[in-house]
């Protein structure tokens, strides 16, 4: 399996996306996003997506300037993306949300009809770096969450991400789905030809499924468990439905319904901390809380107690030095789309 330095991989992704004819700024935003996903330890949202993204960009790429504002107030804006690139669109929405929060305490942007937005955890820290609390919620992704007590696929993973500024390092960041595992991690198991752990997927008898290919092939017979699994999955299932109730209607994307219609709405929220409490006091409070929690004695087999986002930052520092380990099939697929676009692959 090739090991690629992050700057080489980012340059390659940029050149592939730029070769499709999209704006250079957009190509850079998407390339940065997928490589940063690897650096933060989330191969599930990384360069295995490059070939699909690039081929999609060649087919009627919609620029941000072509989107339509359907509702606008001092606090909120709802935007019909008309098929615009999701990663670019959310990056633009962050700036709008921050500007509105600076003027009105809260800034909300709802997005609908955009393409895949990839890793939610990339976005809220950009709001937190402005001294605000950031949230991004999505009722999108594949239809694979089985509600508690069933194996039928009825909901999407319903991911949510939060970020808050801190004193002593990058912002705190929590990025999670309402399923026990993200769909991309199942795909990674299949790419690497590894079994899934028990507790991810069940069949119609409630029995564990560990073959990722079976899951990918059998949409009627298998489903991904909600957060909490077979014992406490009612919590994840309930949270998933509440994400739908918040994001779907408020973004004008609608809730997920029969046949998988509706969904794929995004909710971006910025909260201006300074309108509640001075930023220094806020950061002292949350830093003291994090230090207290993370000082807890780790159990045998655990290295330490992490605050949200700490593990990703630790992984990022390691991979910046060591390089990114890509499965051979992913590297081969990148090479294939690069050849289609006349992009030269780097020598490793």
Can you describe what's shown?
- Helix content is 41%, strand content 17%.
- The protein is α+β, with helices and mostly antiparallel strands and 348 residues long.
- The chain has 2 domains: 1-61 and 324-348, Hypothetical Oxidoreductase Yiak, Chain: A, domain 1; 64-180 and 225-275, Ribosomal Protein S8, Chain: A, domain 1 (2-Layer Sandwich).
- A 7-stranded mixed sheet has the order 2-3-4-11-5-6-7.
- The longest helix has 23 residues, at 229-251.
- The radius of gyration is 20 Å and the shape is globular.
- The N and C termini lie close together (11 Å).
- 47% of the residues are buried.
- The model has no long low-confidence stretch (mean pLDDT 97).
Question: Quick one: how many beta strands?
Answer: 12
Number of domains: 2
- Write the H/E string, N to C: EHHHEEHEHEEEHEEHEHEHHEH
Helix and strand composition category: alpha+beta
CATH hierarchy, class of the largest domain: Alpha Beta
- The number of helices is 11
Any key phrases for this structure?
348 residues, alpha+beta, Hypothetical Oxidoreductase Yiak, Chain: A, domain 1, Ribosomal Protein S8, Chain: A, domain 1, 2 domains, 3-stranded antiparallel sheet, 11 helices, 12 strands, 41% helix, 17% strand, globular
Topology:
Layout: E1 3-4, H1 6-19, H2 24-39, H3 50-57, E2 68-72, E3 76-84, H4 86-104, E4 106-114, H5 124-128, E5 132-138, E6 160-164, E7 172-176, H6 183-191, E8 201-203, E9 208-209, H7 212-217, E10 222-224, H8 229-251, E11 266-272, H9 279-294, H10 310-322, E12 324-325, H11 328-340
Parallel strand pairs: 3-4
Antiparallel strand pairs: 1-12, 2-3, 4-11, 5-6, 5-11, 6-7, 8-9, 8-10
